[in-house]
Specification:
The complex is a heterodimer. Chain A contains 21 helices and no strands. Chain A is mostly helical. Chain A has a domain of 109 residues. The longest helix of chain A is centred in the N-terminal third of the chain and has 25 residues. Chain A starts with a helix and ends in a 6-residue tail after the last helix. Chain B is of the alpha+beta class. Chain B contains three helices and six strands; from the N terminus they run βααββββαβ. The chains are: A mainly alpha, B alpha+beta.
Amino acid sequence: MLLGRIVEDIFRTDGRRVLAGLIRLTGDFDAAEDALQDAYARALATWRRDGVPANPGAWVNTVSRRIAIDRLRRDRAGDLVADVEAPQADLRQAQVGPEQGRRAEPDDPSGIDPSGIEDDRLRLLFVCCHPALSPDARWTLALRTLGGLTTREIARAFVEPEATTAQRLVRAKKKIREARIPFEVPPREKLPERIETVLSVLYVIFNEGYASTDAPALVRPDLVREAIRLGRLTVEVLPASAEARGLLALMLLTDARRAARVTDGGDLVPLDEQDRSLWDRAQIEAGVGILDAALALASPGPYQTQAAIAALHGTAATAAETDWPQIAALYQALLRWTPTPIVELNAAVALGLATNLKFALEWIERIEGRTELTNYYLLPASKADVLRRLGRQQDAIQAYRAALALVSNPAERRYLQRRLDAFGDRVD
Amino acid sequence: MKYILLIYGDERVWTSMSKEEMAKVYAGHRAYGKAMTEAGVMKEGSELKPVSTATSVRFSNGRPKTVDGPFAETKEQLAGYYVIDVANLEQAIDWAEKMPGMTTGTVEVRPLA
């Protein structure tokens, strides 16, 4: 059973890295996933007999590529393979007899070429973010292939029937195959127009990792790491994009607070109550540095604005020392970039903390009146927090209850419940 | 891989053009066709006559019926097409982006089966 866990872990991490290369090799998302799946089955059997290899990632890479190539060769009679650009080196390697092939195989750490794999994953990111795919298809595909989420997890995260997610994935893969969206980083002159979709998809991956809709612990560090890693690669590819740097800074600054955000028991800690000694200072400094480099490009945008807000929180020694007037001003700016009710809600709270909480309450009530956020638990939750700070206990209790009725994440639910408990009020 | 580039636009924009403007668009298409031929991607292409010349044969319960007009009355009409042979969608989009005479309108890029 333990082996099963190990194999599963390796495929969740290394397997995902290998997948991008398999997609390039086969030119087909489904064929790549099938090959990886078969390699998984083979790993279970082989490793049980021989033990886990020293470099399991390299083993998975070599074996799954071999499986994929064997399939391609078997299908050679069919018309599909003629279109596949299989790297010659791989085909040669596959044509080597089993004896010779074995030597170069499982534990050879050189079996994975890190730079090549990074490139493949970047290519995969650009395929997933291709403008020929619908926006929904983009992040679904990215979460599935780059994030390694199952269809079920994606469906739960975005509150939709699993069949809807599955169908969207099938359609997207089919479009890529049939319209032949190439597996490549677009030419330099096209990068600027692609950057926006890439950044928005990275942001979805990051958010799903940082504030997981589903995971009991609220955080999926693997997704966060993946988003940050891809964010770095994007900055490398597009050094002139201020927003790419802005998003990277935002992710680093936000993630730097991770250790303080959730207690060991899995409880959510609001920003003003977090133990700031748990914040990752080095990462905050790195984030601020990247943000400064972004701002120096003098091309402002929503990610840089959000990163600037995160930087102000990150560099405040205590919650009381938070520079709310500047944060409120930044939210106003953000509202011009992205005029969504959720940003507006944040802007309202920031304004209240910068000036007078009554203004926040009035603004939140105006948002309520427009009914766009009727089912969004943070609306009543934010209102409740403001009411609590204003000392209007009865109204606060009512708002917390309204939020409880809408919240889905267990940790967020417990947070609201704690607030209610503090009033000596239990809701079951 | 072959793609068809279907050119859609508002016919009224076209019919309200001056002779000189039309000549400019035609010259644009000649240069475009030449560039495609030189790149070795051009298969065929043509302008279509206006939708007022269109006839549709509609089928209902398997029976054909001839009617006046295009398949659908829309703001943008099919005005012409090119068939090109390129490596992938990216290259097809590259050509579509270079379509001459387009200030508004749409070029639909569809792979041929």
